[in-house]
C-alpha cells in the first residue's frame, strides 16, 4: 500500500482505501432531478420544455450571452461550458 493524495492505494488492485476509483465518481440518483434525456422522455416533458424556453427567453432579455459561430472565434477564446439542471417542484 502507498499513500497517494491522502488515500491508501493498493498498487496491484488500484483500490484506494478498499474502494474502487470509479466509485468515487458515482453520485446519488435523484428522481426529482433527471438528466436531459430522462426529462425529455418523461410524462412531464412538456413542462420541462416550457421551463427551458422561459429560461432562455429571460437569459436573452438580460443579454447574458452572445450567440456566435465557434469556428469564427480566435483559437484562444475562452468559451464557457453550460449545462441544464432539472428539478421537479
Kindly list the characteristics that best describe this protein.
2 domains, 89 residues, single chain, alpha+beta, 2 strands, 2 helices, 7% strand
Please specify the SSE layout and strand pairing.
Elements: E1 2-4, E2 7-9, H1 36-40, H2 45-61
Antiparallel strand pairs: 1-2
Distance linking N and C termini = 47 Å
Q: Name the helix and strand elements from N-terminus to C-terminus, one letter apiece.
A: EEHH
Strand order of the largest sheet: 1-2
The largest β sheet comes out as:
2 strands, antiparallel
Computed structural class: alpha+beta
Shape: flat
Poorly predicted regions are none
| Total beta-strand segments | 2
The percentage helix is 10-25%
Q: Name the average pLDDT.
A: 77
Give me the number of helical elements.
2
Beta-strand content = 5-15%
Rg (CA only): 21 Å
Amino acid at each position: 500500500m502507498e499513500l497517494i493524495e491522502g488515500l491508501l492505494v493498493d498498487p496491484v488492485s488500484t483500490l484506494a482505501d478498499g474502494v474502487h476509483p470509479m466509485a468515487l465518481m458515482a453520485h446519488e440518483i435523484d428522481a426529482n432531478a433527471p438528466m436531459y434525456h430522462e426529462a425529455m422522455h418523461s410524462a412531464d416533458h412538456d413542462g420541462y420544455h416550457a421551463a427551458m424556453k422561459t429560461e432562455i427567453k429571460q437569459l436573452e432579455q438580460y443579454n447574458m450571452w452572445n450567440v456566435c459561430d465557434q469556428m469564427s472565434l480566435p483559437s484562444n477564446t475562452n468559451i464557457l461550458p453550460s449545462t441544464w439542471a432539472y428539478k421537479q417542484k
